[in-house]
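Before a computer can learn anything about folding, someone has to put a protein's shape into writing. The three-dimensional part falls to structure tokens, numbers that each stand for a local backbone shape. The protein below has been through that process, and both of its lines are reproduced in full.
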Amino acid sequence: MLGATLGEAHVTIARYHDGQRRLQDKFDSRRIADRLDQVTYSTQLGEAQRAWIEASEMFFLATVGPDGHPDCSFKGGRPGFVRVLSPVELAWPDYDGNGQFRSLGNLLANPNAGLLFIDWTRPSRLRVNGRASVAQDDPLRASWDGAQQVVRLQVSQVFPNCPRYLPRLALVEASPYAPAAGHEPPRPGWKDDPRFKDALPGKDQRP
């Protein structure tokens, strides 16, 4: 299964730190860890991975703040909202959220990011790691309906890993909040919650 989704440029340099090595040695897995690094890790996206990513409606984004505190968030949209611009670069739109900017704020302080794509129907999973940048004036922004900024990721590591514990799930309904051409997403109810509505940005204020 792994071989069918590998990228095109393989790497053979292990990037395991001391903590990982200690556990590998404890469970006698150093050899297989090194073999996985040699055989399955790559530095760019292959065509099958491009197709998978561009058909995805979601991924999980892991970031770390300047204090080392981690954050993991869900990112969703219509299929195609993540674009593979080249084998070593992908991009996605920043849609309206709750205004905390936990993930993107972290990226401004520490650009290292990890993306996890999951295909629940096969099932399969794909990790894409790299360094991200965030820009409001990115020329791609106008090509996404509802985008307020654009995030670009320079890919450094691609790892299609074992889906053994993934449940098989089926999509029931696309989110009506995902922006799309000719579609006006509904207003999220929390913006009219009396605890929050007076603190909303000006664009979301209602009389």
Q: What stands out?
A: Residues 1-8 have pLDDT under 50 and may be disordered. The beta strands are 58-64, 70-76, 83-86, 89-94, 112-119, 124-135, 149-161. The helical segments are 18-26, 30-39, 47-55, 102-109.
